[in-house]
Amino acid sequence: MKLLIGADHRGTEALPELVERLKQMGHDVDASSATSNEPCDYPEPAWKVASGVANGDVDRGILLCGTGIGMCITANKVKGVRAALVHDELTAELSRSHNDANVLCLSADLLGHRLIDKIVDVWLGTEFQGGRHARRVRKIEAVEQGDDPRGIE
């Protein structure tokens, strides 16, 4: 799978180990949107990763910052992105199986390396279930277009 990973200054410590692990698993990983340990504004890497996903340059994106909240808010502003702030394996699974999330947002401050690895494994390994969930994703897309989702079947 082709992945684009981004981090702000609070997420860079967790990044090298994650990138190396994903590469060893056979994924094509681009972490060029990560910054140094110098303070930066999280909307910049969030936009770069979300845009790469929305444009189809990569299959999915992963974002790390202090809490994951700012990255998630920013990424969801990009049309075509369904970013999910995930904090355990269950929310990782549900974000994919029910919401077809294409960007994973993680808290580098609140999650340890081991839990980050578990979350990423579940998220990458879970397929979208479709069915009634596909209708809901279509409704999300309608909202994204500025349309009323109530008429979507």
Describe this structure in words.
Helix content is 42%, strand content 18%. The protein has helices at 15-24, 43-54, 69-75, 89-97, 113-125, 132-144, and strands at residues 2-7, 28-34, 60-65, 83-85, 103-107. Strand 1, helix 1 (15-24) and strand 2 form a beta-alpha-beta unit. Helix 4 runs parallel beside helix 5.
How would the blueprint of this fold be written?
Layout: E1 2-7, H1 15-24, E2 28-34, H2 43-54, E3 60-65, H3 69-75, E4 83-85, H4 89-97, E5 103-107, H5 113-125, H6 132-144
Parallel strand pairs: 1-2, 1-3, 3-5, 4-5
Brief summary of the model shown:
By secondary structure, the protein is α/β, with parallel strands linked by helices.
Number of helices: 6
Instruction: Please write the CATH class name.
Output: Alpha Beta
| Named CATH architecture | 3-Layer(aba) Sandwich
What composes the largest sheet? 5 strands, parallel
Query: Which structural class best describes the helix and strand composition?
Result: alpha/beta
Arrangement of strands in the largest sheet: 2-1-3-5-4
- Unreliable segments (pLDDT under 50, ≥5 consecutive)? none
Number of strands: 5
Give the % helix: 40-55%
The helix/strand series, from N terminus to C terminus, equals EHEHEHEHEHH
Q: Any idea of the CATH topology?
A: Ribose 5-phosphate Isomerase B, Chain: A
What labels would you give this structure?
153 residues, alpha/beta, Ribose 5-phosphate Isomerase B, Chain: A, five-stranded parallel β-sheet, 6 helices, 5 strands, globular
